[in-house]
Amino acid sequence: MSEQNTKVAEPRIDAPADHTTKANPLQNFLSGPAGRSLGLVIALALLFVVGAATSGDRFLNLENLLTILRYASIIGVISIGVTFVITAGGIDLSVGSVMGLTTVVATLASVQLAATQSSWILIVLVALAVGVGAGLINGLVIAYGNVVAFIATLAMLVGARGLAELISGRSTQIVSNRDFLRVMRSELLGVPLLIWIFVIVAIAGWFLLNRTTFGRRTIAIGGNLEASRLAGIKVKRHLVSLYVLAGLAAGIAGIMMLGRTTAGTSTHGLLYELDAIAAVVVGGTLLIGGRGTIVGTVLGVLIFSTLTNVFTQNNLDTSVQALAKGLIIVVAVLLQQRFAARGPRKIKS
Amino acid sequence: MFEEDQPRPLLEVRGLTKRFAGVQALKGVDLQVLPGEVHCVMGQNGAGKSTLIKTLSGVHQPDSGEIRWEGKEISLPRPTAALDLGIATMYQELDVVDGLSVAENIFLGHERATGGVLHVKKANAIARTLLKRLGHGSLSPSTEVGTLSAANKQIVSMARALSRDTKLIIMDEPSAILDSGEVSNLFRVVRELTAQGIAVVYISHRLEEIRQIGDRISVIKDGRSTANGLSVTDTPKSELIRLMTGREVANVFPERKPIPADAPVVLDVDNLELFGHFEKVSFTVRAGETLGFAGLVGSKRSEILETIYGARKASSGRVSVNGKVLRPGSVTSAVNAGIGLSPEERKSQGLILDEPVFKNVTLSTFERFARAGHLNEEAERDAAREQIAALELRPSDPDRPARTLSGGNQQKILLARWLVHGTPVLLLDEPTRGVDVGARSEIYALIRRLAAAGTAMIVVSSEIEEVLGLADKVLVIDDGKVLTQTKASDIDEHGVLDLVMKGSAA
Q1: Which residues in chain B have Cβ-Cβ distances shorter than 8 Å to A284?
Q2: Of the residues A171, B163, B429, B489, which has the maximum number of CB atoms within 10 A of its CB?
Q3: Chain B contacts of A12, Cβ < 8 Å?
Q4: Does A291 lie at the interface with B, CB-CB under 8 angstroms?
């Protein structure tokens, strides 16, 4: 007998005001967006307690907190792009290698095109263009070529990495543009630019997802693609723009990476796609689409970067760290499902 | 309007044809809808109603024929084109997004926004007005739609239609998911809409309903119009059935055969109880006997069925099959003992839609056709073919994906699965939901055949007439309580309703 038949039928069509008959208010709160974020905040606080307990002042000082944020910033920007794609029910595996490609192309462009005169803006524009271009290809192949997103972006993951290796000849290119490095290393109010970029991207992402028609339609497509189409949303076009957005985020992350490492190489961003997906899912965005949270993604990224920091401070093996990451992902998703079961139900198959 | 004998039609469709890969879905459909009328469109499953709706809402493009809107010829290349003209469609599958709020669903695709930035408060305020206009002012615009009942989701769908400047609303079987109280509310809303001059194209299987709400009827059969704009009051039911089926339906329910007196008790349910749902249900079903559950939607009929099947864990009481007591809350135990369930939600709970018919037929028996773990698809196909021929499944190709079959034929696949399995006990939850009149009588005949083969069955249906027509014995249930247990021949529809009304008054 198939497991399908064991599912209990949907609740009958009962009283008209059935939304009021849900469990107690505490459960309602915990299964709501605020409650989910609260859980993440508690997890983050626990990590801080552990960090403070094991490393004391070495952990709890401003410099170290900025280190955690700086570490979080690049993967954070990528994760915000990926949040949109996943909210719409898609997936983008290519963001890490696209970011690598943007660093390679941008450094080469600045080296080859009149190295000394070229403005730092050129590096920025080239990186963004490469990211957007890769995202556009992803989007077109997925939306108009009807290729499953997993496969299309897997192809981009492999292809972009290969292209980056070809262009760079597998060698690391150093950024020679001093203006660029100066801008990227600047600080505002004692906070490095990298962190500011992360903050700005996060706020812009939150606004875009929660306060604009673009975000609303993204959630709708992830929740019910057919209904969105019938409501008059241009679904294909929207899907393309989502992958472009993810590519754009990868381009921004590429610029940040160049600023931090001063070098472009094809190995930048290795496995970043998995870190990003992990942060997004731990944050509470549904992998099947229909619900997305930027706040959750930011918290997810912070949890992972704090975890890394705590482990590094205690000189623990990276393998242990990977194991802990894996556990966090599973536990977070299990907890989410517990609460989600009390939340909205899917009527459709 | 008064200068003419008849008002100018709002929508006029002539000679519409549409062909999908290999199937001629529409072969020439005509339709004339007047402003402010309720125009019913009838037809069996597979007659082409869905294709017609989707053509009128801009989802499909017709191959030929013309569509006129307020006298002008139009084309509808995409859903927004129809919506912009004022044609809104409420689909049967309830096309709402569960994760969004009521207001967000209402304005989906035409959000209240400036430069892409949403006006949440304004949208909520307009949504509240719309819901009030539909008599559902109590529904909060910020509620997540996924938490609403099907009836309220339908209200959201309707509010969405009204949120645009809509002149015509197409409703695809709106009553299929509603109980009688909700249906009367639906009718009230429809009457209010038409009073405001909005035309409604109302698609339904239920003849009685059409008589209550409709002004005129058009009938489609096999992709072709067989009647256009008949008056509801002047057209007898038999005539409509003839137009839909091309034959006269005389006796819908096949005659019962008496159960042999020595037939053994197969299913024994003893004081079964599920707290919060139903209390102390006891009955027995003998081989070849059919037991019916009669009651309204919400009477917990399905819950009892699911508890017997082990999909819900009983609080107390026991179920035994041929004397063997089942483990509570274990579907495996129920299936091993020989209980089969044909679930209410065929599409989500019963069928693997993209798999071919034959694999669906052998889903619970394919191991029998395997040798050392190696599946023998040819043998499966043969077994399925046998059933296809016996059940007159159409189309008869065992390799067709189940999705492409009509509701009635999908139901036959489920029944075929249990016929192949040879299960001694079969639970049928709403076996004819979404199945048209013609295919219904075939399914009735099939149920009788299963009974004649000695299967003990329980039939649950929201149509009391159907329960009484199929069952030998009836349990009348209301709100989780068994009001009475009687021979089906000793009670009629009125009697059941009488009991249920008394029961809920008490």
Answers
A1: none
A2: B429
A3: 297-298, 300, 302
A4: yes
Distance CA A71, CA A64 (A): 10
Give mean pLDDT, residues A275-285. 91
Average pLDDT over residues A104-112: 83
Total residues belonging to chain B: 506
Binary contact (A19, B148; C-beta < 8 A): yes
Residue ranges of domains in chain A: 76-273+286-292
- What residues contact residue B436 under an 8 Å CB cut-off, 6+ apart? B43, B44, B45, B47, B205, B244, B406, B407, B408
DSSP run (H or E) holding B324? strand B324-325
Per-residue model confidence (pLDDT) at position A298: 96
**Dihedrals phi, psi of A73, to nearest 5 degrees:** -65, -45
**Does A15 contact B149 at a Cβ distance shorter than 8 Å?**
yes
Number of residues written out for chain A: 349
Q: Considering only the beta carbons, identify the residue of A18, A214, A223 that sits closest to B149.
A: A18
The 10 Å CB-count burial string (b at 16+, else e) for B226-236 is: bbebbebeebe
Judge contact between B479 and B277, C-beta under 8 A.
Answer: no
Confirm or reject contact between A323 and chain B (CB < 8 A).
no
Gap from A319 CA to chain B (nearest CA, Å): 38
Question: If you average pLDDT over each of A131-145, A283-297, B131-145, which comes out highest?
Answer: A131-145
> Chain B: residue nearest A18 by CA?
B148
User: Containing H/E element for A129?
Assistant: helix A120-143
Interface contact A45, partner B, CB < 8 A: no
Rounded alpha-carbon distances, angstroms, from residue A11 to A14, A119, B39, B138, B463: 8, 63, 32, 21, 19
Q: What is the pTM of this model?
A: 0.72
- How many residue contacts between A and B have a Cβ separation below 8 Å? 164
Whether chain A has a CB inside 8 Å of the CB on B331: the answer is: yes
Question: What's the average pLDDT block by block, 10 residues per block, for chain B (506 residues)?
Answer: 64 89 79 92 77 90 91 89 91 82 91 86 92 86 88 88 90 80 85 90 81 89 85 80 61 74 90 90 93 81 89 91 90 86 74 84 79 80 85 81 81 84 87 74 84 90 82 89 88 76 52
- The answer, for B144 touching chain A at a CB cutoff of 8 Å, is yes
Strands B265-274 and B278-286 turn out to be: antiparallel
Q: To the nearest whole angstrom, how far is the Cα of B213 from the nearest Cα of chain A?
A: 22
Q: Is A290 on the interface with B (CB under 8 A)?
A: yes
**In this structure, how many other beta carbons lie within 10 angstroms of the beta carbon of residue A102?**
34
Contact between B154 and B94 (Cβ < 8 Å): yes
CA–CA separation, A21 and A19 (whole Å): 5
The pLDDT assigned to A4 comes to 41
Per-residue pLDDT band for A85 (boundaries 50, 70, 90) equals very high
Identify the top-confidence range among A245-259, A332-346, B437-451, B467-481.
A245-259
User: From the CA of A207, how many Å to the nearest CA of chain B?
Assistant: 9
Q: Which residues pair with B292 in a beta bridge?
A: B459, B474
Which residues in chain B are contacts of A13 at CB distance < 8 A? 149-151, 177-179, 182, 297-298
Q: Reading across the β-sheet that carries B473-478, which strands appear in turn?
A: B339-342, B425-429, B456-460, B290-294, B473-478, B481-487
- In this prediction, residues A10-37 reach a mean pLDDT of 52
The answer to which of A173-177, A284-288, B108-112, B432-436 has the lowest mean pLDDT is B432-436
Residue in A13, A214, A232 closest to B298 by CB: A13
